[in-house]
Amino acid sequence: MTKAVKEKVAKKQRIEESAISENEIKISEFERLLNQSFNYKFNIADVVNGTVVKIDKTGILVDIGSKTEAILPLRELSNVPFSNPEDIVSVGDQKEFYILREENEEGQIMISLKRVHLAKNWEKLDEIRQKEETITAKIISLVKSGVIAEVQDLRGFIPASQLRTGTPHEGLIGQELQVKILESDSRRNKLILSERLALAEERRKIAGNVIAGLEMDQIVDGEVVRIADFGVFVDIMGIDGLLPISEISWQRIKHPSDILSLGQKIQVKILNIDNDLNRISLSLKRMEENPWTQIEGEFKEGQVIKGTVNKITGFGVFVTIYPGVEALLPVAEMSDSHINPFDVVSVGQEIEVLIKRFAPQERRIGLNIKDIGK
């Protein structure tokens, strides 16, 4: 073998040895990465990348780089109702997944797709809260102290005090309300919302323009949006006006709900406009003629008439003698002897009374029963 041939053979051997060495390095690096992936510890609540490798009716297999494919139960696929898993994912899809359960004895991990979606929604809501933005919420159920609403596939609570109506009612179910976020805490799964805060902001934007177009004694259309012990709030072109209980009816009423109901459409008269505070006061009873004016020629002193007992107190009895007109029958005018009015008459009873004092201009009528027939 010549010297040139020997050198050529030696060179070939060196090239082959170098290629073997490089392959060994590559194999060694592959084994290291493979072992590293197998030894990686997946913790609950981690969010990892994965690829959908198989879909069937029992669940979905996802490659997340663990020893075995992770299982994605169908119940953890989506918050949105679906008929087939393929409506949500397809084989080959690459997505982020939430670790629900660490490896079991078989090395299998349970993951969730919908919880990644929910986590992102919590982030969105927290951002909306910080920016004090308004968001749409759909009412899905009533509870004793408020309503449950759905926002961005999450459940939130609107306390009764934060509802425009002040009280939950069946008519709210299915409605979409504009709300502000009072509190959002994903760790405690706590989401508190307010409709009144959102409405207050909207009201501030339009109140000045609406009130500028109103006049005293003007008759306007409205809708009852809240009922309280002291009166009713009526929506007038997007702002709330107060209809006090004393301005609901000429007759005595115990509660505004005796006359009005939520959502009822009514016509009211504007009693007062406060331009500084952007507030309006309303009246319903003044849509009708004042009954005290109507009775001026109807009754006179000494006349015996019939009336209905409306209220009983320790000092006397209030009797309705005309729609919207109440007269007082004092205890002293019921008998010459001491009596308890509660033992003599009852609410709703029709009785015969004598008009002893008649002063409709002062809105005062005094009655008597002990002198009837004398």
Give your account of this protein's structure.
With 374 residues, the chain is an alpha+beta fold. It folds into four domains: 47-112, OB fold (Dihydrolipoamide Acetyltransferase, E2P), CATH 2.40.50.140; 117-197, Nucleic acid-binding proteins (OB fold (Dihydrolipoamide Acetyltransferase, E2P)); 213-287, Beta Barrel (OB fold (Dihydrolipoamide Acetyltransferase, E2P)); 296-368, Beta Barrel (OB fold (Dihydrolipoamide Acetyltransferase, E2P)), CATH 2.40.50. 22% of the residues lie in helices and 37% in strands. It contains five helices and 20 strands. It has a five-stranded antiparallel beta sheet. Strand 1 and strand 2 (60-63) form a beta hairpin. The longest helix is centred in the first third of the chain and has 37 residues, at 3-39. It starts with a helix and ends in a 6-residue tail after the last strand. The relative contact order is 0.06. The mean pLDDT is 86.
Strand order of the largest sheet: 3-2-1-4-5
Cα(first) to Cα(last) distance is 161 Å
Query: Do you know the CATH architecture of the largest domain?
Result: Beta Barrel
Identify low-pLDDT runs: none
Helix content: 10-25%
Care to count the β-strands? 20
What is the beta-strand fraction? 35-45%
CATH topology of the largest domain: OB fold (Dihydrolipoamide Acetyltransferase, E2P)
CATH class of the largest domain: Mainly Beta
Structural category is: alpha+beta
Largest sheet at a glance? 5 strands, antiparallel
As a whole number of angstroms, the C-alpha radius of gyration is 40 Å
User: Rough shape?
Assistant: elongated
Query: What number is the mean pLDDT?
Result: 86
